[in-house]
Amino acid sequence: MLDIGKTSNLPQPKCYFSTTTLSTYDDSSELPTKKVPFNLLHSAHYYHTITLLSPSSSTLHTSLSSSRSKYARLRMPLLSLLSGDFFNKHIKTGNVLLLSSPLKVDTTSSEASFTMINGVLSIICDRALYERAGLTGTAIPDPHARKHGTSKFRIELNLRLPSMLAGKKGFERILRAAETVFLGDISWLFYDISAAGVVDNDVSLGKEVEIREVKPDTEDMEKVLVPEFPSNMTKGANQENDLVELLEWISLAAINSPRIQQGDLVDEIISRYEVPDISSKAVDGSRTGVTTQAVTRTTATGFLPASFVTDTFGNALLQSSGSWFALVVQGFTDGKAFVVLKTADDQALSWNVEG
């Protein structure tokens, strides 16, 4: 684990680093799921933004720029999800991902948020809503709250169980909570795993539905100062700074910062950033490990399922023989992100950021 962040009484972000030598794969079906760095691709069910950095001389950016995905934005109350065609088609028999915006209860300052994964509805709410809902859940300690701050609660309901039907006692309790406690229209992001996207003209999605297509944006960045990517990098006492600086360079490249471009002139009062040279220095002190390259940045933003990220990484990996690329992935949860750097000599350097 890398120590990143200032000293504070609050919990600090954690960054876990790992490195491995990649095997040779001929087909995406051969890619593992539990081995580093592939396990990071499956660490969440959905993501918000994915950025692929690669040399412009290669064709790796096409692995993302040619990808397409559809998701929908719905607006409906919780009760509509638990009844009618939507419930029967997408929850009891289908397989969908749902992520809600916070539901703010007008009469109080309370709010709740909802997710749906593999038929399990998760509700996160404060104590006031939890006690009114009358559903069984567990407390979630808030590390950012004061010592005696109010905890939030998580309620998980497996709606695919045979007992989750109208007329059953447990299900009627959920419907009652939707009718009397979790009131109001909610904005949802919707992705149908069964249909690999969203089916057009799906009347079960309601009247207020907006189908969006993920269209990656590609940008060529000229004269980028690129550090030499190390081989067999480990988290040693004398290499931790190099790991942090390399992660910082990838993060700046992902937003096309002018600080990493050759000839950048900026007052030191504004920034004293310098592209890291983590290679062995020459006798005269010159920077031997920094080269100037043209780099292509391809970014996709939306409600991206894990399959979208794994396909992008798999296609890039199969096409990257003798070349490098970096994949930057950000989730919806605050502070959740990971970075994978694949070097020309088939080393994979991974940073997993939490918090």
UniProtKB/TrEMBL annotation:
<dbReference type="InterPro" id="IPR013893">
    <property type="entry name" value="RNase_P_Rpp40"/>
</dbReference>
<protein>
    <submittedName>
        <fullName>Uncharacterized protein</fullName>
    </submittedName>
</protein>
<dbReference type="GO" id="GO:0000172">
    <property type="term" value="C:ribonuclease MRP complex"/>
</dbReference>
<dbReference type="GO" id="GO:0004526">
    <property type="term" value="F:ribonuclease P activity"/>
</dbReference>
<dbReference type="Pfam" id="PF08584">
    <property type="entry name" value="Ribonuc_P_40"/>
</dbReference>
<dbReference type="GO" id="GO:0000171">
    <property type="term" value="F:ribonuclease MRP activity"/>
</dbReference>
<dbReference type="GO" id="GO:0000447">
    <property type="term" value="P:endonucleolytic cleavage in ITS1 to separate SSU-rRNA from 5.8S rRNA and LSU-rRNA from tricistronic rRNA transcript (SSU-rRNA, 5.8S rRNA, LSU-rRNA)"/>
</dbReference>
<dbReference type="GO" id="GO:0001682">
    <property type="term" value="P:tRNA 5'-leader removal"/>
</dbReference>
<dbReference type="GO" id="GO:0030681">
    <property type="term" value="C:multimeric ribonuclease P complex"/>
</dbReference>
